[in-house]
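Problem 3 from the worked examples.
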Amino acid sequence: MAIFHVLRRSVLRVSARPLQSSSRRFISLNSYVVTPAQLETVLAKNPRTKLSTSPRVIPLCASWFMPNDPESRTGQAVYEQGHIPSARFFDLDAVTDTSSPYPHMLPSPEVFADAVGKLGIKKDDEVVVYDSKELGIFSAPRVGWTFKVFGHSNVHVLNNYKLWVEEGRAVESGPEQKVEEVQYPVPHLDASKVIGFADVKEIAKDNGKEGAEGVQVLDARPYGRWSGDDPEPRQGLSSGHIPGSFSVPFSELLDPKNKTILPREELVKIFTSRGLDPSLPFVSSCGSGVTAAVVDAALHLAEFGQADARRLYDGSWTEWAQRVTEADGLIRKGK
């Protein structure tokens, strides 16, 4: 395994909270979206030892690429090309509900616990999920959201690995190192963070009706797919959008150069310009439930709306477009 170290910039002071343990003082991150400087600092201040009983800070690579990626890249391959030292790899395609006809549906609590336990992650460990340097922010928020859905509150999203590399922080290459598996407790699924097809269908049918709850569906796909002008990447799937939904392409929430999630002030401007109301509930959707979590993370970072009034449509457009039709008025095209 090759390890590369290059000169790095001065590390910014990390905003962290100390946790007391029986063996040493643990320094923990205190925000969901964290910077490379913050992660580097807590990794340095919480060195791993075999005797320590304190929680650990575990970087978790969640790199994932679309099945039709023009370069045929895979998350596992880019992980092996370079990753944060001691990082584990989370396979988004494997940790899913394999019985569902739709991609990336949430796994059962038992499948999640088994996968996380095999990664050597304990319930009280602090997990920092990150993406590939090629995409910046893409699939990591989905994995972070999944951890939260299953009650692992000590989870964060790195903003982002592209900056981690460009700013000269340590990177190692090679396959995953063997870790000691643990017995991760089977969690409960927090249903308040998820919404299914039937409930989204009711929201769509109530759109524009007097007395409707006013749930705002935010669609993270590119505008052309939302409007129906461009095709879906999945063959045979109609493009278009859920009636009443708002087009909020996830790429517009990222810095065009470094692919980080934009600062809070800029996110608020974007959400406000779309006519969104922070006093009303939000549902995030996309193609298959992956980049919808980027929108969810951006809402969190922007403090736009209430945290307990945000849900993610797990099946997203791949499920929607296979279960409704344009003829029944539940697939809209145009603005």
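Problem 4, a separate protein:
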Amino acid sequence: MPPPTVRRSTPPPSSDSDPDPSFQSRVILYHQTHHSPSTGLPISLLSLLTEAADYVPITHLILAAVHLNTPPGNIHLNNHPPSEPHNNQLWEDVSTLQEVGIKILAMLGGAAQGTFTRLDSTDEKTFEEFYVPLKDMLRRHKFDGIDLDVEEEMSLNGIIRLIDRLRSDFGRDFIITLAPVARALQGGPHLSGFDYEALEIMRGSSIDWYNVQFYNNWGNAGDVEDYGEIVARGWKAEKVVMGCVTNPGNGHGWVYGRRLREVVRGLRILFPRFGGVMGWEYFNAVMGDGDVNLEVQEERPWRWAEGIMQVIREV
């Protein structure tokens, strides 16, 4: 089908006080629920283009979740191989989003265990057996980048090896991000095993940014304090994206729309190179403002991103 007529994604307007008018804070959505839980029908991503305002409301979409299973080469996107007909509509929508400038990343890992244990093997042959099919899948489906969501023990040497191979194989334009919980960038306990501050020192030049989880008791997106603490520890604001849940059912710590927009507005004032906002996830995203109940708002999930992008675009 031909792509809908929409504006291309362009940097938002900036004020003269912004030290870098060319910098654009990101608005990122994860997309894991690809089919309606009630009907089983594919969830269209094209509403982000056809139903939103007269601008593209996101800069990046992250498809979740890619898992490396045994034996090597047994790759699933959620519960199905990526190339199964089950995903045909998804790939058509993704191609349309890319045509209007939205970058598409694959989320590797997440809560399901095993992917990074396999890639962390000290046996090079084992690493290659699992890595090469992943590389081929990323190329086959024309991903613009990868999000490494390490929620299991992994060594610092292992994550460095993986990042180095991805950068070598895909080049500088390929986006590489990680998805730590907020506590990981505050020096606290976290899920990944390795030290993120050490990783940033050693391979920061190869990591584009961090999609930081400020929810599920790992951080608070309802005020500026947790984000400010991370920047105070020396992290660059442009590399720290504040991650939120988009619906109370998606995890603990949902922040209703009016409050979230106030926080984003405040962070843009405090940090003109504020990295942006990430939402988990698209299919049931709600702002929660007004008298309309959440179930009705879930029928218009694009409005969450639209509301965030409005704040990002403010002069």
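Solution to problem 4. DSSP finds ten helices and nine strands in the chain. Confidence is low (pLDDT under 50) at residues 1-19.
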